[in-house]
């Protein structure tokens, strides 16, 4: 029963990943793309977590950690770029 529910959740999350990917590509504004990429990263972490439950393994835990770090850094960098127009500030007076 639990496996059937997890498989249904995987299908729904796959659709969500597809929608987020499309939104990231054709998003009308840069803010929409940033939110879509952030949501994509969170959904990907959940997707891999459900795969870990289905396979009864912890082999992908490092993958989840790396994806979460990259998603966090990417979100911060894009938010800073949207706010100031540059990721790195060379003139910090």
Structural features, described:
By secondary structure, the protein is mainly α. The chain is elongated and about 55 Å long. The mean pLDDT is 88. Helix 1 packs antiparallel against helix 2. The chain contains three helices and no strands.
Précis, in short:
With 93 residues, this protein is mainly alpha-helical.
- Global geometry: elongated
If helices are DSSP runs of H or I spanning 4 or more residues, what is the number of helices? 3
What is the overall pLDDT average?
A: 88
**Total beta strand runs:** 0
Question: What gap, in angstroms, lies between the N and C termini?
Answer: 61 Å
Largest sheet: none
How large is the share of residues in beta strands?
A: under 5%
Helix/strand order, N-terminal first: HHH
Sheet/helix structural class: mainly alpha
Name the features.
mainly alpha, 93 residues
Which helices and strands, and how do they pair?
Layout: H1 2-26, H2 30-55, H3 61-84
Helix pairs in contact: 1-2, 2-3
């Amino acid at each position: 029963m639990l496996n059937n529910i997890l498989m249904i959740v995987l299908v729904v999350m796959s659709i969500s990943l597809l929608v987020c990917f499309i939104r990231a590509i054709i998003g009308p504004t840069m803010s929409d793309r940033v939110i879509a990429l952030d949501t994509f990263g969170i959904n990907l972490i959940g997707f891999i977590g459900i795969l870990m439950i289905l396979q009864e393994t912890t082999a992908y835990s490092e993958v989840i950690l790396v994806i979460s770090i990259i998603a966090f850094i990417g979100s911060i960098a894009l938010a800073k770029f949207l706010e100031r127009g540059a990721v790195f500030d060379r003139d910090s007076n």
